[in-house]
Amino acid sequence: MCKLCREKLSHRSSPSRRSFVVGAASTIGMLLAETASAGDSKAPPKPQNVVSPGAALERLQKGNMRYVKGASRRHDFEHEREALAGGQNPFAGILSCADSRIAPEYAFDSGRGDLFVCRVAGNFATTETIASLEYGVAVLGVPLILVLGHDKCGAVDAAIKSLKDGTTLPGHLPPLVDGVAPAVNAVLQQGGDTLGKAIRQNVIDNVAKLRSATPILSAAVEQNKLKVLGGIYRLKDGRVDMVA
Ligand SMILES: [Zn+2]
Questions:
Q1: Which end of the chain has the least Cβ crowding within 10 Å, N or C?
Q2: pTM (2 decimals)?
Q3: How far is the CA of 78 from the centre of ligand 1 (A)?
Q4: Could you tell me the distance, in angstroms and rounded to a whole number, from the CA of residue 227 to the centre of ligand 1?
């Protein structure tokens, strides 16, 4: 919400829910309109990144297949640098675990300016990551968000142990446990591969959370401007399997 809208809302003595919804909707409209007009007046730095949500997914999957086969392209960073100095229009947003083995730009064989990546151990959506992705979608025109979990995730494993044993992790780690706790609690009593099930459930939960994140992401999904999907990166062969 821009400063002007915030001030307008705060000056109302008792804003009704309806007035807030109308205000939020018009703010999204303004943001989307700004994006569209910016695109009209100035060519995007990477015209090939102006694609539909479906085409963006296909591009991620093709890039991942090249990466899996060891056939990644050579990226001309020097040439791209100049084109990207004046702006960016990434074709996908990624919410990934911070694990050093999961490198989205490599995993999807992409260049600079292609992926808008937010990373946190356990790949769960916080207020800050939702805000970042809102910027990516409403201002930069990102048509696809992929929540990217991975097998053998240490953050999810630590959360399972903490919740099972009732122990509190040191330092600033407890909020990480809180972030993946809903997924862990949902599968804890099922038995079998608890870690694998929790990793998958965590991706599914966060896809749902981003799809329904009002007012910006949910509106973009509703208008078919955005798809939010989920995948799991396999450490052994680098393949990303779609799960949501
Ligand atoms: Zn992880």
A1: N
A2: 0.85
A3: 32
A4: 23
